[in-house]
Structure formats: structure tokens, C-alpha cells
Amino acid sequence: MKIDFKGITAEELNFKINRVKLNATDKLELKPQFSRQVRKVNGNDKLNFVALSVKVESTEEEPKPFDILATLVGVFEVEDIKDTTEERAFVIEATKIVYPYLRAAVTNLTATAFIAPLNLPVISGPIFPEDKELYAFAVDGGNKLN
């Protein structure tokens, strides 16, 4: 399998401040929610788009000082995918490539809003539960996905 990273673009960057009163003793848990969408171009199976999103949303039960939604899309040209295992491996690798850009976009977006920047964690393993089995196999089996 050959993966060629063609570029990245922001599909959506949305920030909204919430006027939430928190006590000094309140523990704030942002709980970012991640999602991913993989699309292929009609008529060109080699061209793939991997959209990675993060959302933090305030609710009455769990108020947050801001809402944020950021979606970045990585563009990849992929050749020689032989089976569904290699296709899953591509999706995991593409996620690993796009995530640092998403992390930087969220930090920059919050810093530009003149609040303490939100730094998403550095993630060395899979973000999504459906990736855990293949990721564990690749690392334990000595066949890194890189």
C-alpha cells in the first residue's frame, strides 16, 4: 500500500464563548468528542478524503466556558490497497497524520479568542475504539502501520 498525503484544509472552525459562572472549587471537564468521516471521489478510487472533527459543547448538565467545533480534511492518494485490513490501516494512518493539524487548529482558535488555549492531548495510539484491534495487532505484531 502506498499513501501520498496531498494536503489539508479546514472545513469548519467554529468557536462560541459561553457566559458560565463556575465556582473556584468546580472541576471543569471539557470532554472533547471526536468523529471521523472517510470519503472517496467518484470515478477515482485512489483519491480519499479523511475528515477529522472535535467538538466541545456546553449543556445544562455540564456547562462549559465555550463551545467549539473544528473539522479538518486531509486529502490522500492511496494505491495498492489489497483488502479491508489494508483499508483500515490506511484510515488509521490518515487519522494519525491529520490529528496534529486538528490539535494545532484548536489551540490557535482558542488562543485567537483571547482565552487560555485549549491543548488537546498528544495521542500516540488510536483515537477511535474501532481502530484499537488493528492498531494493537500492528504494534504487537511488529508491522508498524507507518
Task: Please outline the helices and strands.
Blueprint: E1 2-17, E2 33-41, E3 44-56, E4 66-79, H1 84-112, H2 132-140
Antiparallel strand pairs: 1-4, 2-3, 3-4
How would you characterize the overall build of this protein?
The chain has 146 residues and is of the alpha+beta class. The chain has one domain: Bacterial Protein-export protein SecB (Roll), CATH 3.10.420. Helices cover 26% and strands 36% of the residues. The chain contains two helices and four strands, in the order ββββαα. The protein has a four-stranded antiparallel beta sheet with strand order 1-4-3-2. Strand 2 and strand 3 (44-56) form a beta hairpin. The longest helix is centred in the last third of the chain and has 29 residues, at 84-112. The radius of gyration is 18 Å and the shape is elongated. Mean pLDDT is 87; it is low at 137-146.
List the helices and strands in order: EEEEHH
Can you identify the CATH class?
Alpha Beta
Structural Rg = 18 Å
Helix residue percentage: 25-40%
Average residue-wise pLDDT: 87
Portion of residues in beta strands equals 35-45%
Number of domains: 1
- Please tally the β strands and state the result: 4
Q: N- to C-terminal separation?
A: 11 Å
Short description:
26% of the residues lie in helices and 36% in strands.
How would you describe this structure in keywords?
146 residues, alpha+beta, 2 helices, elongated, Bacterial Protein-export protein SecB, 26% helix
